[in-house]
């Protein structure tokens, strides 16, 4: 086979030319006289056509092909308006790399979710997963681009940490040589705070771990989080930054991954509304709104998944709920000087029932108050010595947030469950494959 190797996504530039494609067969059918091969190569999908009359030998090879055979195919590119892919290939030669040793386990019929998750290593090849992973890719690029455009410095925070994090009790531990236990990070925030005092505006993007026994459609035990931290930012500045980020990311995804959203049958109208400014309501107003809607909630209660949906369905874009009671939030949040029972924080809730995508706050900058809070939350003060140190040497007000990448993917793709928003999901029931 002598023709030039082309990726399927580039076929549009080769109409009328003979090319080779290196990929796999994901579907096939035959009319007796014509074999139709559905080919994928990781960049797209295309149909190849082999007429018996034009090449008997190639036709017989196509007959032998089973689902997920790996093949190199040579053919002439033709534009085809009727094809869902826009182009077709008139095949003149096939080189079979491998015919699967066993029948491919994933077929067109409906499989249960457990079966699909057990076969995640193969399920990734299917079209829906292909499109989701493309959207995820665009989201992450857009996030990084936003920070680069806005003068932020990437600071990679550690995965292995001492006993330090968001809250006790949700930590995965590992044996760590002579030092006893180390823990998988729940958040890079505390390290980002240190970096913000060195570099001003910083961000990270990496895996995060939570040993929480939540089995909801929104929880993973390992997820990717993007965090940002800015010195001298108030809670108000922080909210502004979050809406700029989220509207930027959604805008870029619409622009660059529109075809993938379309293939996922995602109605993009609600996404097109994601423009700044985003609505903001206080926790107090949120509770009143929920009470009016019949929720059994009183001031001081946490806002759970159903309540989040109850609030977000009142708005056509993400909403920021700010100033929660300090008792239900993390130890490091700065109290409101006017009302010490609430903290200067916000959660951003996605529309369409997707719940919290961002958790944010201004941080306590007084060393004594911080120490008091660490004790109050029964956290090991010794492990936090360096974190308290930051408040001893030129302390300043500062704020930041964390955004869950898979929550964002789920919402933007409108997935039913977060497990499809990450290549290999980790939940309390699953560590394989
Ligand atoms: O609200 P969280 O717990 O906030 C923090 O960890 C802060 N330290 C972040 C910061 O201020 N730098 O988590 C942040 C976000 C949530 O809003 C949610 O989108 C996501 O991380 N998240 C999860 N995503 C999937 N599975 C889980 N178990 C998640 N827990 C949080
Ligand atoms: Mg949160």
Summarize the structure in short.
The protein has 433 residues and is an alpha+beta fold. Helix content is 29%, strand content 27%. It has helices at 56-64, 113-118, 120-123, 127-149, 189-199, 235-256, 258-263, 269-272, 283-292, 305-312, 367-376, 385-389, 405-413, and strands at residues 4-5, 18-30, 34-40, 45-51, 70-79, 87-98, 153-154, 160-161, 173-175, 181-184, 201-209, 222-231, 280-282, 319-322, 335-336, 339-343, 345-350, 355-362, 398-404.
Notes on the protein architecture:
The chain is of the alpha+beta class and 433 residues long. The protein folds into 2 domains: 4-98, OB fold (Dihydrolipoamide Acetyltransferase, E2P); 120-421, Bira Bifunctional Protein, Domain 2 (BirA Bifunctional Protein, domain 2, 2-Layer Sandwich). It is built from 13 helices and 19 strands. An 8-stranded mixed beta sheet has the order 7-11-12-19-18-17-14-13. A 5-stranded mixed β-barrel has the order 2-3-4-6-5. Strand 2 and strand 3 form a beta hairpin. Helix 4 packs across helix 6 and helix 4 (127-149) crosses helix 13. It is elongated and about 85 Å long. Bound molecules: 4-amino-1,4-dioxobutan-2-aminium adenosine-5'-monophosphate and magnesium ion. Residues 347, 356, 359 line the site of magnesium ion.
């Amino acid at each position: 086979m002598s023709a030039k190797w082309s990726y399927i996504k580039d076929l549009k530039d080769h109409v009328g030319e003979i090319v080779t494609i290196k990929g796999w067969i994901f579907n096939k059918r035959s009319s007796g006289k014509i074999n139709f091969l559905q080919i994928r190569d990781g960049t797209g999908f295309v149909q190849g056509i082999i007429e018996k009359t034009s090449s008997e030998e190639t036709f017989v090879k196509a007959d032998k092909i089973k689902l997920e055979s790996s093949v190199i195919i040579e053919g002439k590119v033709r534009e085809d308006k009727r094809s869902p892919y826009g182009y077709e290939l008139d095949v003149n030669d096939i080189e079979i790399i491998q015919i699967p040793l066993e029948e491919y386990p994933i077929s067109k019929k409906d499989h249960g979710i457990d079966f699909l998750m057990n076969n995640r290593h193969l399920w990734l090849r299917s079209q829906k997963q292909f499109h989701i992973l493309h959207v995820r890719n665009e989201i992450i690029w857009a996030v990084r681009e936003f920070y680069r455009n806005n003068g932020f410095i990437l600071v990679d925070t550690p995965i292995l940490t001492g006993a330090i994090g968001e809250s006790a009790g949700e930590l995965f531990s590992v044996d760590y040589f002579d030092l006893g236990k180390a823990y998988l990070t729940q958040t890079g925030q505390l390290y980002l705070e240190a970096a913000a005092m060195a570099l001003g505006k910083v961000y990270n993007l990496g895996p995060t771990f939570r040993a929480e026994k939540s089995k909801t459609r929104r929880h993973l035990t390992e997820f990717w989080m993007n965090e940002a931290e800015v010195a001298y930012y108030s809670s108000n500045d922080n909210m502004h930054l979050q809406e700029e980020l989220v509207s930027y990311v959604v805008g870029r995804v619409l622009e660059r991954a529109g075809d993938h959203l379309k293939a996922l049958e995602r109605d993009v109208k609600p996404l097109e509304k994601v423009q700044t400014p985003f609505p903001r309501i206080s926790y107090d107003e949120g509770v009143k709104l929920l009470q009016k809607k019949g929720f059994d909630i009183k001031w001081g209660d946490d806002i759970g998944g159903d309540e989040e949906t109850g609030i977000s369905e009142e708005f056509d874009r993400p909403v920021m709920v700010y100033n929660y009671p300090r008792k239900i939030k993390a130890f490091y949040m700065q109290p409101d000087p006017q009302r010490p029972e609430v903290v200067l924080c916000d959660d951003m809730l996605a529309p369409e029932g997707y719940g919290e995508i961002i958790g944010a706050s201004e941080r306590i900058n007084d060393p004594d108050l911080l120490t008091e809070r660490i004790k109050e939350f029964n956290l090991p003060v010794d492990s936090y010595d360096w974190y308290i140190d930051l408040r001893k040497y030129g302390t300043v007000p500062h704020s930041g947030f964390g955004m869950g990448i898979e929550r964002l993917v789920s919402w933007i793709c409108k997935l039913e469950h977060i497990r499809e928003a990450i290549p290999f999901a980790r939940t309390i029931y699953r560590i394989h494959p």
